[in-house]
């Protein structure tokens, strides 16, 4: 799944990872992404970009059988 960081905050690798988190949220500050206690505009934007990307991927790969990679960052 291609990363498109030129779209803005939430479309970069950190934003994409924030979009994948469950019951953890992030918000963007001048110094970078921070974990927050509730979803805000930045978390919603990141999840929206990820959802749009996954929808486009689903359309593009109709009938494809094989492996796909969705990259995330973090200590895993």
UniProtKB/TrEMBL annotation:
What is this protein's name? Answer: Methionine synthase
Species of provenance: Streptomyces sp. SID7499
The taxonomy runs:
Bacteria, Bacillati, Actinomycetota, Actinomycetes, Kitasatosporales
């Amino acid at each position: 799944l291609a990363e498109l960081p030129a779209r803005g905050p939430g479309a970069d690798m950190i934003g994409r990872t924030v979009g994948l988190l469950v019951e953890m949220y992030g918000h963007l500050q001048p110094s970078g992404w921070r974990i927050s206690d509730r979803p805000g505009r930045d978390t919603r934007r990141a999840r929206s970009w990820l959802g749009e990307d996954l929808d486009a991927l689903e359309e593009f790969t109709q009938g494809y059988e094989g492996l796909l990679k969705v990259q995330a960052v973090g200590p895993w």
